């Protein structure tokens, strides 16, 4: 990201150190009654996000709300710290011999633990045990690993904690300098910029445990890990394995379900037979080793369920780079490339793809799902430890990506790239990506008529939760985005990365963000939970934002900005905001750093940390007022859009101090009042007794 507003001040070395975060005061149990487990969604009371985000089968419980003799770390939103990447910005640190104990809210036979353990001294990760006991018995031991976490340094990162700067000729925020051009050279703390701390692991318990039983996670006394951080526990009741009647069972063609022998040739034989017989391919319960791409076209592949069927492979070095620049291959299902005409009628469902990607090499095709898939569906998969969960290169049309679980990716979870049209991304759950959670990127050819609906994106360690880079007629609706860490926002529309212009309609509707609006470490300014950015061109479309909720925004709820060097050429001409809820901002409701305009109707705000509108315009500061104008269409409550701010009063504070807001409040039904439309006048703010200021 370029640096538009002057040089950054140094980031204190303490912000790069984890030691201060790991020595917090011991925790008291947040809810000591084992009959009352605290179930959350994205670290919030589920009532705050009802009807938004993915419908998932599991119940989420944050470790900081559970019983423990460990230590609560956080809250903290500072990058390069363990709490900043934790769900809800808190977690529990356990020393060997300590535990955290949860209570099952519903009957469950499976669990997922999100955790972090230290890296090896020289990088590459370690393994360490974690004991799981349910109801005081049924003890199992999980083997945790940090082999897929702990990245360091500048983009695209390294696994070596002792490495020098990858790009000494790049501007560096920590020293406000270009190190290679600075004498004496700056001394930087190593490891430099540690990130991507967390991983998660699943466990089938073998029996169903009733609601109210306790799940205790204990670090054994002899653990090689100096500490184990538990972020959360997901519990669920997994159904019996699915059997695809009439399906072509890959075992009949020699596929080994134990994972010991390479199953790729047998699966390919099953695919070829199934195509001739016009039948689906069935992947039964088991782990099938696949160390390369399986090319799919005009085929249905059905697993026994993503808890039961796993395609697992090693990342494999190629003898020489492929034509697309790849140096490695790995487990994945790929359609034919768009240049070859793409694939059609591919339907994938009900299995896990477990990769082996431990570093980011952008030229590598080591994604779980790739290629060009037309008239196809990707449903109910779990994608784990690949570079990108689903990266589709168009032009292509009519792909439906629904109800998938995509976690612990080195880069994006989903990216629809170059001329993807008439497609849907709905109901997916995304956690811990190393880049944008879900992105539409109109590079060279515009994406068009796509919808991103009812997805949940949590804790992207870099960039945005959901991003739209150019394109035509895009709808982003009903999504839940939480806890972006750095250089990004919850929701983003950017004319950048060489994308084709925005045209037609760009609609953000009924989305919720929480703890978004990060501090950009290069610019040293706070972004918005919703961020519009004009870099390569203007964001000039029919832009409408309706029904969004921006909760507990770290800096601003909304930001509209042009790159400083092109501020007189590009702008954001018109954005229309209606029926918006802003509950807590560290800075303003709106920060405008561009030329353009916006209208506001029924935008309610409370607990705003600074002036309601931080209006810098395009930094020309003419006597006539800011180059960005605002229109009040009525019903804007909370005093944030005061008359003196209209139409374009300059209120520019380049880096306002952050005022920490209280936690968001639940809404309760009260008698109607005022002149609002019914959907808005029947609600009032009320304190949720389970939320606390962070």
Q: Number of helix segments?
A: 2
Uncertain regions spanning at least 5 consecutive residues: 1-32, 669-694
Secondary-structure content class: mainly beta
Quote the beta fraction. 35-45%
Distance between the termini: 29 Å
Largest sheet: 24 strands, parallel
Rg is 25 Å
Question: How much helix, percentage-wise, in residues?
Answer: under 10%
- What is the overall shape? globular
Number of strands: 58
Look at the structure and give the mean pLDDT.
91
Any overview of this molecule?
- This protein has two helices and 58 strands.
- By secondary structure, the protein is an all-beta fold.
- Strand 46 and strand 47 (525-526) form a beta hairpin.
- The longest helix has 14 residues, at 264-277.
- It starts with 38 loop residues before the first strand and ends in an 8-residue tail after the last strand.
- Residues 1-32 and 669-694 have low confidence and may be disordered.
Structure summary:
The protein has 694 residues and is mainly β. The chain is built from two helices and 58 strands.
Labels describing this entry:
2 helices, disordered N terminus, 24-stranded parallel sheet, nine-stranded parallel sheet, mainly beta, disordered C terminus, 58 strands, globular, 694 residues
Could you give the topology of this structure?
Blueprint: E1 39-40, E2 59-62, E3 67-68, E4 71-73, E5 91-94, E6 99-103, E7 108-116, E8 127-134, E9 137-145, E10 199-209, E11 214-218, E12 228-236, E13 248-249, H1 264-277, E14 281-283, E15 286-289, E16 293-295, E17 299-303, E18 309-312, E19 316-317, E20 328-329, E21 332-334, E22 343-344, E23 346-349, E24 352-354, E25 369-370, E26 373-374, E27 376-379, E28 382-384, E29 390-393, E30 396-397, E31 399-402, E32 405-407, E33 414-417, E34 420-421, E35 424-426, E36 429-431, E37 438-441, E38 451-453, E39 456-458, E40 466-469, E41 471-477, E42 480-482, E43 491-495, E44 502-509, E45 512-514, E46 519-520, E47 525-526, E48 528-534, E49 542-546, E50 549-553, E51 556-562, E52 572-585, E53 590-593, E54 596-608, E55 613-615, E56 628-632, E57 666-669, H2 678-681, E58 683-686
Parallel strand pairs: 13-14, 14-17, 15-18, 16-21, 17-23, 18-24, 21-25, 22-26, 23-27, 24-28, 27-31, 28-32, 29-33, 30-34, 31-35, 32-36, 33-37, 35-38, 36-39, 37-40, 38-41, 39-42, 40-43, 41-44, 42-45, 43-48, 44-49, 45-50, 48-51, 49-52, 50-52, 51-53, 52-54, 53-55, 54-56
Antiparallel strand pairs: 1-2, 2-12, 3-6, 4-5, 5-12, 6-11, 7-10, 7-12, 8-9, 8-11, 19-20, 46-47, 57-58
């Amino acid at each position: 990201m370029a640096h538009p507003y002057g040089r950054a001040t140094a980031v204190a070395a303490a912000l790069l150190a984890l030691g201060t975060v790991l020595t917090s005061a011991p925790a008291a149990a947040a809810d000591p009654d084992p009959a009352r487990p605290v179930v959350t969604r994205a670290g919030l009371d589920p009532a705050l996000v009802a009807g938004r985000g993915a419908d998932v089968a599991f119940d989420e419980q944050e470790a900081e709300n559970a019983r423990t003799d460990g230590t609560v770390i956080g809250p903290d939103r500072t990058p390069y710290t363990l709490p900043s990447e934790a769900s809800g910005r808190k977690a529990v640190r356990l020393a060997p011999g300590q535990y955290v104990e949860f209570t099952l809210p519903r009957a469950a036979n499976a669990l997922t633990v999100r955790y972090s353990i230290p890296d090896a001294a020289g990088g590459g990760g370690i393994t360490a045990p974690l004991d799981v006991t349910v109801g005081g018995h049924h003890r199992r031991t999980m083997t945790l690993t940090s082999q897929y976490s702990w990245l360091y340094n500048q983009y695209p990162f390294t696994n070596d904690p002792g490495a020098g700067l990858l790009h000494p000729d790049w501007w560096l925020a920590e020293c406000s300098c270009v190190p290679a051009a600075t004498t004496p050279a700056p001394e930087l703390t190593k490891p430099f910029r540690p990130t991507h701390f967390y991983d998660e692991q699943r466990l089938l318990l073998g029996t169903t445990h009733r609601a109210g039983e306790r799940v205790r996670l204990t670090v054994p006394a002899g653990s090689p890990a100096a500490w184990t951080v538990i972020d959360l526990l997901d519990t669920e009741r997994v159904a019996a394995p699915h059997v695809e009647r009439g399906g072509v069972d890959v075992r009949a063609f020699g596929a080994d379900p134990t994972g010991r022998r390479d199953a790729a040739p047998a699966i390919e034989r099953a695919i070829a037979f199934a195509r001739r017989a016009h039948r689906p391919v069935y992947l039964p319960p088991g782990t099938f080793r696949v160390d390369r791409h399986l090319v799919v076209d005009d085929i249905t592949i059905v697993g026994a369920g993503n808890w039961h069927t796993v395609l697992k492979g090693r990342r494999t070095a190629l003898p020489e780079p492929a034509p697309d620049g790849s140096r490695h291959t790995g487990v994945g299902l790929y359609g034919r490339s768009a240049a070859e005409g793409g694939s059609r009628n591919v339907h994938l469902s009900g299995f896990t793809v477990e990769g082996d990607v431990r570093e980011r090499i952008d030229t590598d095709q080591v994604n779980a799902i790739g290629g060009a898939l037309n008239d196809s569906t990707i449903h109910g998969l779990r994608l784990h430890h690949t570079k990108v969960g689903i990266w589709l290169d168009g032009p292509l049309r009519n792909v439906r990506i629904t109800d998938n679980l995509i976690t612990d990716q080195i880069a994006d979870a989903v990216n629809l790239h170059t001329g993807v049209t008439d497609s849907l991304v709905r109901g997916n759950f995304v956690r811990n990506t190393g880049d944008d959670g879900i992105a539409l990127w109109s590079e060279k050819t515009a994406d068009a008529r796509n919808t991103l609906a009812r997805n949940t994106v949590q804790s992207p360690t870099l960039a945005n939760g959901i991003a739209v880079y150019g394109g035509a007629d895009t709808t982003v609706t009903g999504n839940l985005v939480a806890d972006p860490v750095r250089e990004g926002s919850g929701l983003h529309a950017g004319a950048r990365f060489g994308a084709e212009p925005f045209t037609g309609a760009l609609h953000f509707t009924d989305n919720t963000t929480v703890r978004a609006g990060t501090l950009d470490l290069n610019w040293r300014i706070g972004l918005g939970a919703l961020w519009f950015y004009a870099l390569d061109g203007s964001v000039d479309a029919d832009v409408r934002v309706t029904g969004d909720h921006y909760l507990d925004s770290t800096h601003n709820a909304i930001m509209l900005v042009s790159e400083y060097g092109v501020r007189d050429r590009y702008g954001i001409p018109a954005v229309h905001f209606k029926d918006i809820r802003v509950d807590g901002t560290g800075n303003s409701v709106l920060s405008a750093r561009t030329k353009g305009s916006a209208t506001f109707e029924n935008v309610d705000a409370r607990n705003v940390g600074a002036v309601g509108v931080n209006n810098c315009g395009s930094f020309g500061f003419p006597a006539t007022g800011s180059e960005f104008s605002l229109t009040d269409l009525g019903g804007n409550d909370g005093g944030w859009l005061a008359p003196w701010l209209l139409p374009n009063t300059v209120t520019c504070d380049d880096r306002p101090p952050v005022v920490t807001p209280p936690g968001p409040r639940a809404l309760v039904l009260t008698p109607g009042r005022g002149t609002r439309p019914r959907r808005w006048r029947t609600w009032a703010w009320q304190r949720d007794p389970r939320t606390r200021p962070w």
